[in-house]
Amino acid sequence: MIVLLFGVANYLVLDYAIERADSFVAETERTLVRNEFSHQIDQVVQYQSQLSFWDKTFAELKDGMPGDAFVRDHIRDWMWADFGFSWMIFTTPGGEKVLGVHRGEKVSERKAREKLHWVSDLTLKAERAYREALSPDRGGWQVKGAKEDPDLLTPALPEIHVSGMRLIDRVMSIVVVQAVIPKSLYVPASRMQPTLLITVKPVSQKMLANTERRLGVHDLGFTPIVTQEPGLVMTPVGADSYNPMVASWRPNMPGTFVWKSALPQIAMFVLVFAGVMLFVTLRFSALVKALQRSEAQNAFLARHDPLTGLKNRSGFDEEVRRAVRKGESQPFSILALDLDRFKAVNDRHGHAAGDAVLQAVARRFSERIGTLGSVARLGGDEFSVLLTGAFSREALLELAEGLVRDAQVPIAHDGQLLAIGGSAGIAQFPDHGGSLHDVMVMADAALYAAKNGGRNRAVHAGDMGSEAVAEAGAARAA
């Protein structure tokens, strides 16, 4: 019975793990497929914008629809030949004027209007986006430009295009609709009524095959949204609520492979129960220890500066909050420190030298503070010290001046001595504030008073007059 229960337990655990793995793989592939089609839609938008966001097209539409020469040179021999747009339709809002081109050839107005019927919601959205982007300018209208993003590899376009995925001519296609505008984004008052350009890019079998190869999926295609077929993963693409089709494919489920590989192992585990239990115990123990080490490392990194090993702002704030909670029975002090001329070291000798300076100063500060308190690097060249317990003004000044001297000792790096300085400000709880914020503010005010007084010195908050506090606070705010 014990052996049987052990085997059943292994089976249930493995079955659950496989189920979760299959679910994770399916969700990952859904994200990949959605992102892939989103990228393809963005490409189609870029291709279409070469015609819709072009002075020549805008000028061609001045007196109506494009002429035969324009259709031949720029639609048939360019857009159809290079990008494979099966349909390109020019229309005015309401469909008063319509011109359609199918596979590079002009078609009758009736056929063009038939296609417009299937994308009427997109044309309405595109017209609305165009009008919302207009603002009065120089007797005409200015289209709101796009925000440039230096991280994008493609040029930013005005946010007046609308896209979706539709079943056109029984083929899933990417549809993009945008008003034709000039590069200057200026639209004369007489041309405020837009001409919309609708482009249809079929998703060909070659495109699907290339996507399959890139993503590592199988049988990628499109299926009605109501389809219920075991083993078929589906996800909507294109963010088009009117699209009744979804992308579908056969996922790379690891479950079958895992079952074939694991069942013999389960049988062996049942036969050699004692050895397996010992193995599992050891492996589980190692995993738990690894997780504990990982959690401990993550907790340490969350509260410590990776360069110097000191507490960071988050870790320092936690310690100070604990000190505040104990403040009624145990006072504490805050020392705010700032390195002088540190930026000059970075600018002249590079960031590697700056890192060496920060590490050396952090080590000196830690050695001087020892068990008296905690040292933290709050960011850049800013340091702070928390001292718990009662300290006299003289003791605090002596300690802070020692820290300032530590910062002044030259640091050897790459065959040269790097010289900086330091300033310090001191505040005590509860003498200089009844809250964490007040004490920190007073320590910062004393620090800035030290800087304003000539740097390379320490100032106690109790030695500052109200005017000095206000002046230091104003400098801090600036």
UniProtKB/TrEMBL annotation:
Gene3D superfamilies: 3.30.70.270. InterPro entries: CHASE4, DGC-Regulatory_Protein, GGDEF_dom, Nucleotide_cyclase, Rev_trsase/Diguanyl_cyclase. Pfam families: CHASE4, GGDEF. Residues 330-463 form the GGDEF domain. The keyword Membrane applies. This is Diguanylate cyclase (GGDEF)-like protein. Keywords: Membrane, Transmembrane, Transmembrane helix. SUPFAM superfamilies: Nucleotide cyclase. It comes from Shinella granuli. It comes from the Bacteria. The chain crosses the membrane at residues 262-284. PROSITE patterns: GGDEF (PS50887).
